[in-house]
Amino acid sequence: MSNSQVTALIVEDNPEHELLLRSLLETSHSPVFSVTSVGTAAEACERLSAGGVQVVLLDLNLPDSKGIQTFERVVAVAQEVPIVVLSGTGDVTLAVQTVQLGAQDYLLKGHVENHLLFRSIQYAIERKRAQVDLRRAYDDLEQRVSERTAALREANDALQRQVEVRKRAEAASLESNKQLMEALSELRAMQHEIVQRERFKVLGQMASGIAHEFNNVLTPMLGYAEHLLNHPAMLADVECVRDHLAKIVAAARTGAKAIVRVRDFARTEAGERGPVKVGDVVQGAVSITEPLWKDEALKAGKTILMAQKVGDVPEVLGNAGQLRELLMQLIINAVVAIEKRGMITISAERNNGSVAISVEDNGSGMSESARLRLCEPVQGILSGAVRMSGYTGIHTILKRHGASLEIQSAEGVGTKVTVLIPAVPFSELIAPPLAPEGPQYSSARILVADDEPMVRDIICMFLQEDGHVVDVAENGRQAFEMFCKADYDLVLSDLAMPEMNGDQLAAVVKERNPKMPVVLLTGFGDAMNEVDERPRGVDAVVAKPFTMAILREALAEFLVK
């Protein structure tokens, strides 16, 4: 946001909460907030109808409206105004529902401080602006496609009428082809947008399941840790402590894997193609959709069994992320088709020079007309049907992989969808290189910068166990002041820090000593390493969460004897 004034509307009936929000906003100097407060949904609608409001901070429980109905009333008169919901309840379902209906963020009262509130408002305004621009662009695109279609129809009619005049007919044909290519280009852009919408729809369907999975991860971590804290005498039992810690570490690794799976699903780029192990793709799709076909299905009164029958099949040539996404969509469609009890079977077998991967269910099935339409690449969405989600994206992935689709189905019997993907030719199989022996490390003096105390403690503990001398700083500015006063062998920095972030710290360190190794720690590490993008001055990136082995390996290049 710029330094200009932002008009904010606080919808809150609690004077204390309203005063707190107003005081938080008044601390901002960039931008400066002009604040108006109302205490009912009716007053909020009246104020929004008058215009001029740039962001709304909305309490859901008001004297004249409660819960999701409050949000629906307000958003109905503020379609283009970003809304940040402030609620006293941590109901995940309510949070997901408000975001799906158009809220830009969902914050809990009592957990909001000025930096969080400013960041949420900034992101809300920027995201809403992007959504409004996208919707307007989409409306404009639909109008242009309609106009192009009409123009094409007129051109074709003219061509029929002027067939006897060859020269004029050829000119009209060339013009028609030009318009056709333009319309095709716009159609492809529309198809890409539809695919993206289908992806976000699937992610929305999985949101509560993902939250459930993380709660299952956090429960044993909190439970075992609290058990040790509440029973100090147990600390003398080394085996018991090791057992509890091992279970906490296992739960943490499960959570980290879940984050990786969600990140992989969220990728939209085509990506590189190469040999892909079918079993890994199937297992990944089953794993990331497990909250849907297991926990969410049980919650909806369904009992679904999942079976995998992956035989001895060769690797296929493609992109693992896209193939996993394709199988995920077929699994989700199968879940939707099963009404009460059922089974989903995923199998893979050789088929001449291809691998046939099938997703079969004993759900509601589909009509012959629906089956035929879904087999057509141009058929992405079939209105009124039960299991028609995602076929625009499915056909897009099939086309990229030179793959084909077969559907067997009958109403009331079930459906089997088979994807035939070319196998990797034997000549392209390359033996993996031998892993190098582990490096030998030298003791070094390392400067660590991270604003999270527990993260700093973990890093120090890991480094000191390897014999390193460690100095710590709470932010980038403090770290640079320490760097200027002492000699260090390496700088290890977090990315997001107050006063001076990791990017800025790396830049000023390199200006002072171009040969000083700088390693960045960040939760975006996997994505940055995947596209090989590093900020200026950064020599290596380590993804959070990390283990001692991962950190040691990352530092090996700079600290090996």
Features:
561 residues; Heat Shock Protein 90; Helix Hairpins; Rossmann fold; 18% strand; alpha/beta; five-stranded parallel beta sheet; five-stranded mixed beta sheet; 17 helices; 4 domains
Question: Strand arrangement, largest sheet?
Answer: 2-1-3-4-5
Q: How large, in whole angstroms, is the Cα Rg?
A: 29 Å
What's the overall geometry? Answer: globular
Can you tell me the CATH topology of the largest domain? Heat Shock Protein 90
Largest sheet: 5 strands, parallel
Q: Portion of residues in helices?
A: 40-55%
Strand content: 15-25%
Number of strands: 17
Number of helical runs? 17
CATH class of the largest domain: Alpha Beta
Q: What CATH architecture label of the largest domain applies?
A: 2-Layer Sandwich
Number of domains: 4
Q: State the low-pLDDT regions, or none.
A: 380-387, 427-432, 434-438
Q: Any idea what the CATH superfamily of the largest domain is called?
A: Histidine kinase-like ATPase, C-terminal domain
Structural class: alpha/beta
What is the mean predicted local confidence, pLDDT? 80
- Kindly report how far apart the N and C termini lie: 48 Å
Written account of the structure:
The chain has 561 residues and is an alpha/beta fold. The protein folds into four domains: 5-130, Response regulator (Rossmann fold), CATH 3.40.50.2300; 189-268, Helix Hairpins; 275-428, Histidine kinase-like ATPase, C-terminal domain (Heat Shock Protein 90, 2-Layer Sandwich); 445-559, Response regulator (Rossmann fold, 3-Layer(aba) Sandwich). 52% of the residues lie in helices and 18% in strands. The protein has helices spanning 15-26, 41-49, 67-76, 92-100, 114-161, 166-230, 238-266, 278-288, 290-299, 320-337, 368-374, 391-400, 453-465, 476-485, 502-512, 525-530, 548-559, and strands spanning 5-11, 32-38, 55-59, 83-87, 105-108, 274-276, 303-310, 316-318, 341-351, 354-361, 404-410, 414-422, 445-449, 469-473, 490-494, 518-522, 540-543. A five-stranded parallel β-sheet has the order 2-1-3-4-5, sandwiched between helices. Helix 13 (453-465) links the parallel strand 13 (445-449) and strand 14. The two termini are 48 Å apart. Mean pLDDT is 80; it is low at 380-387, 427-432 and 434-438.
